[in-house]
Specification:
452 residues, alpha+beta, Phosphorylase Kinase, domain 1, 3 domains, 5-stranded antiparallel β-sheet, 4-stranded antiparallel β-sheet, 14 strands, globular, binds adenosine-5'-diphosphate, binds magnesium ion
């Protein structure tokens, strides 16, 4: 029998770090056992469907697979396996130095990455190799916040790191210095290179501080890769559109420095007391349905039912279904074909659960290889076109014809000047802007035609 992997989960939920429980990965299953203290505290568990209110003192179990080799909630804490993932590169360098050879591909290495980078990320779940590592890390963070702001000298190392890793420029940098400026860089999901840092949004020149630095604002800092020129301009535009249309949307700041383009999005997974639980819809569905392995395993019209079932165990904000349908319409009308189940998430624990503010609304259909109507599949069989499908979809989210019509009217109104606003972004190549505008206009026409 293969060797089991062990780790621990801690959390700063409620303000002070404490241990949540023990994590084991065996051959075919993974297990999590809460500490009695954590269960007594009544605080939210490590994921919605693995909450202590459901499992009590029983061990939570999940059958792992090659695609989901850990609890689904922990996937976001393992740095993504794409070439521009800053955290994966950083931690693989570290492991390489420790091992004196290339870390072998497979679960052993992924588990190491989870324990190395799986704390301080988005949400409230912190994974460590053991309790001592947890205590050391929280102490280090405290000491760092008490220390003076990092010297300006060090910023140039960070710049060099980004230039090498994101722009492929042939410059060297000292990873140790970068680690000292930003603290150990936690894993964060998604495809675009990004860092979790704190900034002073009022400063003219961006300076980055470790997350949680007092007097600063925590952000997800996205760095534009050269393959997608202007992407962050379009993402900022779509955040604005959503905000203007009344969606909860995080404040964001677009800035350029030294050939690099940044979008800093203020974190919604923190309040004055510390971290808040965040879990992607992907994780919620996969935890509840063991046959579910990827976004393509569910259809758009089945998602209403997911919320309904979640209501059996959780208190979900009453307008969740309607808000979600509205987000789908905005995605359709802005050419965001990339609204997959990791781009939708729930905020809060079982007793107070709602959609997070809108994030990652990038209109990826501007780029031909991402030109997909919807990342979540749907079956338009029986409909004259997919516009008719989307106009009919409201009923799967508990909306009658009149309510659906209102959602469609609102989305159409919110995106009426979208083509001109896209065209105004000159950093986006003209071909991409034209393609996006064409798509947006075509989708608009279809929805107008089928509005109930
Ligand atoms: N403002 C935010 N506050 C907290 N977490 C966020 C925020 N924006 C994004 N995230 C988290 O970070 C992950 C990656 O961000 P995202 O914008 O989706 O990047 P990408 O474009 O690379 O997919 C998201 O899946 C989400 O969990
Ligand atoms: Mg994303």
């Amino acid at each position: 029998m293969a060797r089991h992997h062990h780790a621990v989960i801690w959390s700063r939920l409620g303000g002070t770090p404490r241990k949540m429980g023990d994590l084991v990965l065996a051959d075919a299953d993974t297990f999590f056992t809460y500490t009695p203290d954590w269960l007594d505290s009544g605080l939210p568990g490590f994921c919605l469907l693995g909450d202590g209110a459901i499992w009590g003192s029983d061990t939570v179990a999940y059958p792992v697979s090659e695609r989901i080799p850990v609890f689904p909630r922990l996937l976001a804490l393992i740095p993504g396996n794409n070439p521009r993932n800053l955290q994966r590169r950083h931690y693989l360098d570290l492991l390489r130095a420790r091992l004196g050879r290339e870390p072998p591909p497979g679960i052993d290495t992924e588990w190491q990455l989870l324990t190395l980078g799986g704390h301080g990320g988005v949400g409230h779940v912190d994974v460590f190799a053991d309790d001592l590592a947890a205590e050391d890390w929280y102490h280090a963070i405290e000491a760092e916040h008490a220390a003076a702001a990092p010297p300006g000298e060090a910023r140039s190392e960070l710049w060099r790191m980004l230039k090498r890793e994101v722009l492929d420029e042939n410059v060297s940098f000292d990873p140790q210095v970068v680690e000292e400026i930003l603290g150990p860089t936690p894993s964060v999901g998604g495809m675009i290179p990004k860092l979790l840092v704190a900034i002073d949004p009022a400063a003219e020149q961006p300076r980055f501080y470790p997350p949680g630095t007092p007097g600063h604002t925590d952000v997800v800092l996205k760095v534009e890769p050269p393959e997608y020129p202007g992407l962050l301009d379009l993402e900022a535009l779509c955040l604005d559109l959503h905000a203007e249309a009344g969606f909860a949307t995080p404040a964001h700041h677009r800035f350029d420095a030294d050939g690099l383009h940044f979008l800093a999005v203020e974190r919604f997974d923190r309040d004055d007391n510390g971290p808040l639980p965040v879990e992607s819809l992907f994780s919620v569905i996969a935890t509840g349905d063991h046959d579910f392995r990827e976004t393509g395993d569910i259809l758009l019209d089945e998602l209403g039912e997911v919320f309904t079932r979640l209501r059996d165990v959780a208190t979900l904000a009453p307008d969740t279904e309607q808000q979600f349908y509205r987000r789908l319409l905005m995605a359709l009308l802005t050419g965001n074909g990339d609204l997959h189940l990791d781009n939708v998430a729930l905020l809060g624990g079982l007793d107070n659960c709602r959609l997070t503010p809108v994030y990652d609304p990038s209109p990826m259909r501007a780029w031909p290889r991402h030109n997909l109507v919807s990342a979540i599949p749907f079956d338009p069989e029986g409909y004259p076109d997919h516009g008719a499908f989307f106009a009919d979809l409201g009923k799967h989210f508990g909306l009658d014809k009149q309510q659906t019509g209102q959602c469609i009217d609102d989305a159409l109104a919110a995106t009426a000047d979208y083509p001109e606003r896209v065209m105004a972004h000159e950093r986006v190549p003209l071909t991409q802007r034209q393609q996006l505008v064409e798509i947006a206009k075509a989708e608009r026409k279809l929805l107008e035609k089928h509005r109930p």
